[in-house]
Design a protein that fits this description.
By secondary structure, the protein is an alpha+beta fold. The protein is built from eleven helices and six strands. 67% of the residues lie in helices and 7% in strands. Helix 5 packs across helix 10.
Length: 286
């Protein structure tokens, strides 16, 4: 076995170990943030701190212990269902209501602030008019288009540059160039081989002027051009990569809003009663 290949393997393992040591605290912190956002409370964090200090020893006072257990059950319901109910009793009533009307708890969670879980009814004022929903959908589609274009641009092995003499934008690599105006797919490509052959018909399809062809050919023939353009291409790829992530985030947020409004409208159209078996039983006892 080659010794150099063993050293490379050990080096790779060391890099993965470094990455894991940095990633684990980040994942742990993000998990805590998610739990706090999902439950809208620091209860689980405080509870774990209590167990860390006092171990498995129970709270001495029975009333306080019962209160803590009730709060734990409430926030566990919030965490697993994603529904921000105010009390444990409201959570039980909501579960009975969902079972009676065959409403998935996931749909209630998807409604977000468009549904009041304590009153078990849709908040109509939080559902926007139809024109706004259509506008949000169109905006989401624009984000999808820009996201796809940004993702595709990360694989382009060329950089966007401007010809100072004519202020035209071109897409250049080590051995070819293409103008961006009109659209690149409607313009021919100027290869480095065209600079010496000078075929008039091929040059004409590039939509480049004679001055621009002379400038671009001079750049591509420069021996130092390959080393200069590679960092530009790498930098451009990273820019489009971050743009792609930004558009993915915007698409996700818009999709959540559209899904929330659609789920709330579907519940509203069913015209369900706010009363459930648990609610009736509770009112009879009172």
């Amino acid at each position: 076995m080659d010794v150099s290949s063993i050293s490379l393997g050990i080096g790779s393992l060391g890099q993965w170990a470094t990455f894991a040591s940095l990633a684990l605290p980040v994942v742990f912190a993000l998990s805590l943030i998610f739990v706090m956002w999902r439950t809208q409370s620091l209860h689980f964090l405080v509870r774990r701190f209590w167990l860390l200090v006092h171990g498995k020893k129970d709270i001495p006072d029975a009333n306080i212990r019962a209160f803590v257990e009730e709060q734990t059950s409430l926030y566990a319901f919030r965490l697993f269902s994603g529904v921000k109910v105010g009390t444990l009793e409201s959570a039980k009533q909501l579960m009975a209501w969902c079972q009676q009307h065959s409403v998935p708890m996931a749909q209630i969670s998807l409604c977000g602030d468009c549904f009041d879980p304590d009153k078990r009814k849709v908040v109509e004022k939080h559902i926007p008019p139809r024109w706004r929903i259509i506008g949000k959908f169109c905006l989401c589609m624009c984000f999808v288009i820009f996201g796809v274009l940004s993702a595709g641009a990360t694989f382009v092995k060329a950089s966007v540059l401007q010809i100072k003499a004519t202020d035209r934008l071109v897409l250049m690599s080590e051995s070819h160039a293409r103008v961006l105006s009109p659209l690149p797919m409607f313009s021919g490509r100027l290869d480095i081989g065209d600079c010496s052959k000078q075929f008039p018909a091929r040059i004409e399809r590039t939509h480049l002027t004679a001055q621009e062809v002379e400038i671009l050919c001079g750049i591509m023939k420069n021996p130092e051009w390959g080393g200069q353009v590679k960092p530009l291409i790498s930098e451009q790829r990273w820019i489009f990569f971050w743009l792609m992530l930004m558009f993915v985030g915007l698409i996700y947020l818009d999709f959540l809003k559209l899904s929330k409004w659609q789920a709330a409208k579907a519940l509203l159209e069913r015209n369900l009663s706010e009363e459930g078996p648990a609610c009736v039983g509770l009112s009879e006892k009172q």
